[in-house]
Amino acid sequence: MEKHTTFKQISLPKLNNLKLGLESTCLKLMEEAGELAQAIGKFRGINGEKVDFEEKEVIEMISKELLDVAQVAVSMMFVLEEEYGINIKEKVDDHIDKLEKKGYLKL
């Protein structure tokens, strides 16, 4: 049986005209993650509140918030690369190796 994993690539831009630091970017990441959690919980009625949104609207909100989280995470990687000399390609390769060793990927 052939082993394989599907890779999808999402490229997000480096944001211009922002003074990003490690701490401020981390705080922004947590803020965006909170907005994602709100979209998943509050707007789907998980916390007991009455929901006036259709499922399609909620999924749209979730996808938008998830992309905000991803953008800030990518921005944080740029900060690590530019301010601290981290090699993003090397870190991504190490991450994929870790996933494979844990059995999450079959390459």
From TrEMBL:
It comes from the Bacteria. Gene3D superfamilies: MazG-like. This is Nucleotide pyrophosphohydrolase. SUPFAM superfamilies: all-alpha NTP pyrophosphatases. Residues 23-101 form the NTP pyrophosphohydrolase MazG-like domain. Pfam families: MazG. The keyword Cell inner membrane does not apply. The lineage of its organism: Bacteria, Bacillati, Bacillota, Clostridia, Eubacteriales. InterPro entries: AF0060_NTP-PPase_MazG-like, MazG-like_dom.
